[in-house]
Amino acid sequence: MAKIRASRRRTPVPKRKNIVIDQQKLDAAKMALGLETETATVDAALDLVVFRTELFAGLDRVVAAGGVATRASARKRR
Predict the structure, then answer these.
(1) Residue ranges of domains in the chain
(2) Secondary structure of residue 42 in the 3-state scheme
(3) What per-residue confidence (pLDDT) applies to 74?
(4) What is the pLDDT of residue 69?
(5) Which residues in the chain land under pLDDT 50?
(6) Distance CA 43, CA 38 (A)
(7) Rounded Cα–Cα distance for residues 41 and 32 (Å)
(8) Region label for 10, one of left (φ > 0), alpha (ψ between -120 and 50) or beta (otherwise)
(9) How far is CA 18 from the centre of its chain?
């Protein structure tokens, strides 16, 4: 059984950050995501970026494996 390294924690550890950010973009993202705080907005936006990266990696693996076909196009090849 593989051991989990100490640096790979399962629970997020919040860390204070001071950043310079475009207030209009932050307000637009906050509204689009329907969140109340700027912290929640930045956190959700970062989650979306990570999800997008994982999704595209998965799609790349599907394409590398030959992609997918609809039932109609699969029947045409028979």
Answers:
(1) 23-76
(2) helix
(3) 59
(4) 80
(5) 1
(6) 9
(7) 9
(8) alpha
(9) 23
Q: 43 φ, ψ to 5°?
A: -60, -45
- Cβ–Cβ contacts within 10 Å for residue 18, how many? 4
Query: What single letter denotes the amino acid at residue 24?
Result: Q
pLDDT of the residue at 17: 93
Contact indicator for 28, 20 with CB cutoff of 8 Å:
no
pLDDT at res. 1: 45
**How far, in Å, are 59, 63, 68 from residue 73 at the CA level?**
20, 16, 10
CA distance 62 to 78: 22
pLDDT of residue 8: 62
- H helices of the chain, in order, are 23-33, 38-64, 71-76
Q: Could you tell me the two tokens for 29?
A: 């993202």
**Is the Cβ–Cβ distance between 29 and 41 less than 8 Å?**
yes
